[in-house]
Amino acid sequence: MKIGIDKIGFYAPHLFLDMNKLAVARDVDPAKYTIGIGQEKMAIAPITQDAVSLAANAALNILDDKDKEDIDFVIFGTESGIDHSKSAGVYIHDLLGLNPKARTIEVKQACYGATAGIQMAKGHIALHPKSKVLVLGADIARYGLNSGGEATQGAGAVAMVISADPRILALEDKSAYLTADIMDFWRPVYSDTAMVDGKLSNEKYISFFESVWEDYKVQSGFGLEDFTAICFHLPYTKMGQKALRAIYEQGTEEDKERLVANLEASKTYNKQVGNIYTGSLYLSLLSLLEQQEELQDGARIGLFSYGSGAVGEFFTGVLQPGYRKYLNTYDHEELLASRTELSVDAYETVFEDTLPADGSTVELEIESDPAKIALSGISGHMRHYVHKDKK
Ligand code: HMG
């Protein structure tokens, strides 16, 4: 039985910052951000968007009534959780009106969370072929104003329906994974910004990739010639280039050209959004599918997932016949094109406009946020969300 991605959608908040302008404000050569880091724009979340609302907005665009009835497992990968106890997925289950006969959980392992969700979903469908699983990855990447990681922030969400007989990508069974206890990036519970050893994180990302790639080759007998494209977790788009460069000499000149060209297409959306942590690899996959018109049905795509701390995994999928019909390219291009640009001053104000951390009540102005689902306030230590179409 084939199991894989039947639907995929994404959402980014309506505000962005131009990386050239951030560079000027930080007295950095703009080419460092646009070429050295490989980012053009950075999505900025207003106070009315958190991981829950971002993920709910991403899912809203892909689910129909049949999906809402068939989904019996919601798995939300995030490292921007809003509660130590209650799963962020439960809010989404309600906001989307899903069938109550469902399991709902939140999973965490830095940017690897959504991949863990997909692998769990695959096992669930193998046992229950008629069910569907909603896998979500949503985050707001915050390192701090003027910090070393500032140019690699971002915000957004990806939602995927995993099912039997998927219409987009069938996941193959072989997979190579690795865990090692590393302090390359983490966020203690008392901090709303991440701690990071940037150089170590880059090194570990590459060494994890090399290690799982070698393991995968031994398991599968495949080499670069068997792949049309390889998609990467993209904390910033140059990272994908660095990782591919570590292995592309293993193939012919033709393999190298094909993989480099497809990597370019897979970076298109990420360049305009920034790091969305758990959803990043899947935003890159979506970007490849929607921005590379030459991809053929039956193409094999490699996927490298990396979550600091650290867990890495390399797995693969095969594009299904007619997959292009099930994409929402126009909507996604429109979502990115219709955003509002912030000045650097305005970005700093939005960045510092955070929710109270002491349990006090707050009511938020949601009218200026065009998202259908938004955080409207906090009272009694509870977050309240509004689904504008459900009023
Ligand atoms: P930095 O010190 O600002 O930058 O840190 P740099 O000095 O290393 O320069 C970056 C690149 O720009 C270099 O290229 C420079 O040569 C180039 P490279 O050697 O890397 O190929 N450069 C220029 N290029 C053109 N024109 C110029 C110019 N100047 C310099 N004028 C760093 C960069 C990414 C480390 C920092 O932003 C950071 O710490 N970011 C956060 C950590 C991160 O993203 N790590 C990635 C791997 S870990 C991961 O992916 C997991 C993560 O997503 C978290 C999770 O799992 O939850 C982060």
Automatic annotation (TrEMBL):
Q: Which InterPro entries match?
A: HMG_CoA_synt_C_dom, HMG_CoA_synth_N, HMG_CoA_synthase_prok, Thiolase-like
GO molecular function terms noted in the UniProt entry? hydroxymethylglutaryl-CoA synthase activity
All copies of the Hydroxymethylglutaryl-coenzyme A synthase N-terminal domain together span: 2-165
Pfam families, per this entry?
HMG_CoA_synt_C (PF08540), HMG_CoA_synt_N (PF01154)
- Which keywords does UniProt give here? Transferase
Query: Where does the chain bind (3S)-3-hydroxy-3-methylglutaryl-CoA?
Result: 29, 143, 242, 275
Biological process according to GO = acetyl-CoA metabolic process
Domain Hydroxymethylglutaryl-coenzyme A synthase C-terminal, by residue range, is 180-250, 258-351
By its UniProt entry, which CDD domains does this protein fall under?
init_cond_enzymes
Per the Swiss-Prot or TrEMBL record, the active site comprises 79, 111, 233
Q: Give binding positions for substrate.
A: 148
Per the record, the similarity remark reads: Belongs to the thiolase-like superfamily. HMG-CoA synthase family.
Q: What is this protein called?
A: Polyketide biosynthesis 3-hydroxy-3-methylglutaryl-ACP synthase PksG
| Gene name of this polypeptide | pksG
